[in-house]
Design brief:
The complex is a heterodimer of chains A (262) and B (546). By secondary structure, chain A is an all-alpha fold. Chain A contains 11 helices and 2 strands, in the order ααααααααββααα. Among the domains of chain A are: 80 residues, Cytochrome Bc1 Complex, Chain D, domain 2, CATH 1.10.760.10; 85 residues, Cytochrome Bc1 Complex, Chain D, domain 2 (Orthogonal Bundle). Chain A has a two-stranded antiparallel sheet with strand order 1-2. In chain A, α5 packs across α9 and α7 packs across α10. In chain B, β7 and β8 form a beta hairpin. The chains are: A mainly alpha (262), B mainly alpha (546).
Chain lengths: 262, 546
């Protein structure tokens, strides 16, 4: 009894909890360290840029995302989203949102490139996350064939095989990918904005992402050999075209052929 | 022609020579014609076909559009068979299109890519073939609408309506088999939907699917099988039916609009030889030209975007070609959850209900001429067309049918409607579901009323003329607007149509009134209860003075 009691007393009642907490901290921290080393580059942004970003954040973003990025009822926490996410959301004009809706709409960016960079630096300075990709991954000189296959398997079900976009549930949609900057395509894959899933580096390696961008830039730069694409929307656009313009022209011609001269 | 005109322009000093030349050439023509006729008796056929009269109205040329686009399909299709290989053997693509280099695909897909990129003129011909196919079926569609709304399917032409409708179904089958041949992602997804549709049939579904695909989907047989159907069996049946269709058109003579001098006993227009043949020949090139322009300037089915078929990816915006859209729409509109479990089995009605509804729709269109003939009890021959307003119930039924089809058709593009008008896809589907049911009902009621109103207006114009816009003050101070009477030719159009009465219920030989008769009388009442009688000559006489 006494031995048992003394044995029990030897350990603090919270020792088990503390042990688990320490264990979790090591594994979790180790994992975070490991996974973030792949993408998070050393923060080279100067302190002045970060301070600049902090001011911009407080003035434009904090009302929804919280002064410490912790999030509020109106917007999610931005801890751990990384510079890539900020650069994508702000750089494409999706943030700040014009209004709440099924999803944030793309519009003319509200911030200059420098301001965007400052915001990204500030958010990245508070917690690690995916960084803005290196230019070498965005040159569009990868393997278009591999990129096309990856795109068909991973992206086409929402974005359409030619990147023309598609519908999602409840008014949400996958936007068209034509005219989207390579850096934004890459950041979207890494951060999974809105309804898009994250394609992390184990899922699609940085080279794979580069190939996907190569393919998208290939079809953007090489217009369809068959002539005007009709939005690359597939049979619906073709059917609409044949009824309105094809048959429309032919019926107009029949009317003209059988018209009596005045 | 030229043999007659050359002697006139020949130098003057040789008149004898020119006349002898003329007689020798005409003697040769005579002898040749005689030679052929004695051995083939072709003159009878030429007489019959050559003297067939075609009335002039734009809507009578829609069937021709279908015919000519079919010819375009045959010509371009023959070219494509020289290069297409209907095999599902795996090869590694190594042609000109960079983003597919080194990708494994079937021989069918790789040969289609070669047609598109490495055969001279191949892409143009492929695109013309596909655009012509879309035009072909669309032209059949509006041709059928013309026949329906003008009542041209009535006796003696009911059978030709049936043949024509079978041609339409064959064209759908041709279109679908063609769509599936390249073995790209889009065609494979289309086949997967058909496979699901077949497997959804109770009991027999799985068996039929395995029979069709030679095992589990997709197998390695389907492209070869579809190819046989697409270039051999279906075109053969189609060509025979088409010939029959045209022979019937000649046998029945062409229908025409009612007008002064145009009666049920004659046909006013130009004969096939030479006038109409020349016109039709020109029109063929016009249709070919429009289709060729589409093939030149507008991409259709860019298989290089879709890539080879692979069961895992499905592209957003995957749809069938427009003519199968109604079936795709039916699958999208059927509400979920129509299944239950009984005896350890799941009984699903999600597929069989749309399939039955579509089958019902197809059968209803097929037999409509017989239904209408039975309801109206009209056994006369009809060679004069109805203006749609003069058959309000038929026109209203037609509009209801068109709206039903349109709701299904629109549903097939629900995702694109959602993205392009920034709507939610669920909302689009629900609106379409409502339109599928309410659209035909509202369309029916509105159309019938509009037809009756137009008939009333015609009656008013026939009797009192049209408003001239000239206001006259009478000596007594009264103002009237002068109504100008229509001329005889215009009036004819307004007054010459059939006036039907609902059938009376009459007891049969046993003195009994059967339930069938009651039903028929009820249907007839529904058809003809609301009607505006045509203006009689007597009324016209009294017209202005009352």
């Amino acid at each position: 009894m006494a031995r048992k009691g003394s044995a029990a007393n030897r350990r603090h009642p919270l020792a088990t909890v503390a042990l688990i907490a320490i264990g979790l901290m090591f594994t979790g921290g180790g994992y975070a360290l490991f996974s973030s080393t792949a993408t998070a580059e050393t923060n080279t942004a100067s302190q002045t840029t970060i301070d600049e970003g902090k001011k911009l954040f407080a003035a434009n973003c904090a009302s929804c995302h919280g002064l410490d990025l912790q999030g509020t009822g109106a917007g999610p926490s931005l801890l751990g989203v990384g510079a890539a996410s900020v650069d994508f959301q702000v750089g494409t004009g999706r943030m700040p949102m014009a209004m709440q809706g099924p999803q944030a709409m793309q519009k003319t960016p509200q911030f200059t490139a420098d301001d965007t960079k400052a915001l990204a630096a500030y958010v990245a300075s508070l917690s690690p996350g995916p960084a803005v990709p290196d230019d070498s991954l965005l040159d569009g000189k990868g393997d278009a064939s591999n990129g096309a296959e990856l795109f068909r398997i991973n992206c086409a079900m929402c974005h359409n095989v030619a990147g023309a976009g598609g519908a999602l549930t409840e008014g949400k949609f996958a936007p068209a990918l034509t005219g989207v900057a390579a850096v934004h395509i890459y950041e979207a894959m890494v951060t999974g904005p809105q309804n898009m899933p994250v394609f992390n580096d184990k899922n699609l390696s940085p080279e794979d992402k580069r190939d996907v961008i190569t393919y998208l830039k290939y079809i953007e730069k090489n217009p369809s050999p068959g002539g005007y694409e009709l939005g690359s929307l597939g049979p619906v656009a073709e059917g609409l075209f044949v009824w309105i313009f094809g048959l429309g022209a032919i019926v107009a011609l029949t009317v003209w052929l059988t018209a009596k001269s005045n | 022609m030229s043999t007659v005109t050359t002697p006139d322009t020949a130098p003057a000093p040789a008149p004898t020579q020119s006349s002898s030349q003329r007689s020798s050439t005409s003697r040769f023509t005579e002898a040749a014609a005689n030679y052929i006729d004695e051995r083939t008796s072709i003159s009878g056929v030429v007489k019959e076909f050559g003297r067939k009269i075609f009335p002039d109205h734009w809507s009578f040329m829609l069937g021709e559009v279908a015919l000519y686009s079919f010819v375009v399909i045959l010509l371009t299709g023959t070219f494509l068979t020289f290069f297409f290989q209907a095999s599902m053997a795996e090869v590694v693509y190594n042609g000109s299109y960079v983003p597919l280099k080194g990708v494994e695909m079937s021989t069918a897909m790789s040969s289609t890519l070669n047609i598109s990129f490495d055969v001279r003129g191949g892409l143009l011909i492929r695109q013309i073939h596909h655009w012509a196919a879309l035009t072909f079926i669309a032209a059949i569609g509006i041709h059928m609408l013309r026949i329906y709304f003008t009542g041209a399917f009535r006796k003696p032409r009911e059978l030709n309506w049936v043949i024509g409708f079978i041609l339409f179904i064959l064209a759908l089958a041709e279109g679908f088999t063609g769509y599936s041949l390249p073995d790209d992602l889009l065609s494979g997804n289309g086949l997967r939907i058909i496979d699901g549709l077949i497997k959804g049939l109770p009991v027999v579904g799985t068996w039929i699917s395995f029979l069709l695909f030679g095992g589990e989907f997709p197998g390695t047989d389907i492209v070869g099988r579809l190819y046989s159907l697409h270039i051999l069996l279906l075109p053969a049946i189609l060509a025979v039916m088409l010939a029959l269709h045209l022979v019937f058109v000649v046998v029945h003579k062409h229908t025409q609009w009612s007008g002064p001098g145009q009666t049920k006993d004659n046909v006013v227009g130009s004969p096939i030889l030479p006038m109409f043949a020349a016109k039709a020949g020109g029109f063929f090139f016009i249709v070919f030209g429009v289709i060729a322009l589409m093939g030149t300037f507008f991409t259709i089915n860019p298989i290089w975007n879709y890539g080879p078929y692979d069961p895992s990816p499905v592209s957003a915006g995957t749809q069938p070609d427009w003519y199968i859209g109604f079936a795709d729409g039916a699958l999208r509109l059927i509400p979920p959850g129509l299944e239950f479990e009984l005896w350890n089995r799941t009984w699903s009605f999600n597929i069989i209900i749309p399939v039955l509804i579509l089958t019902g729709l197809i059968v209803a269109v097929l037999v409509y001429p017989f239904i209408e003939a039975w309801i109206t009890g009209d056994k006369r021959e009809h060679h004069l067309l109805d203006r749609p307003r003069n058959a309000p119930t038929r026109t209203a039924i037609g509009v209801a049918g068109v709206l039903f089809y349109a709701a299904l058709w629109g549903a097939a593009s629900s995702d694109l409607i959602a993205t392009h008008f920034q709507l939610s896809i669920e909302g689009v589907i629900h609106v379409n579901q409502a339109l599928l049911v309410l659209g035909p009902i509202i369309g029916y009621l509105v159309t019938k009323r509009v037809c009756l109103a137009l008939q009333k207006k015609d009656r008013e114009i026939a009797l009192h003329g049209f408003e001239s816009g000239r206001i006259v003050r009478l000596p007594g101070g009264e103002y009237i607007e002068v109504h100008q009477p229509v001329d005889e030719y215009e009036r004819w159009k307004l007054v010459d149509y059939n006036d039907y009465q609902p059938l009376m219920i009459r007891p049969n030989a046993q003195g009994k009134i059967t339930a069938v008769q009651r039903f028929r009388a009820g249907m007839s009442r529904w058809f003809f209860e609301d009607r505006i009688a045509p203006v009689s000559p007597k009324e016209i006489e009294r017209g202005g003075h009352h």
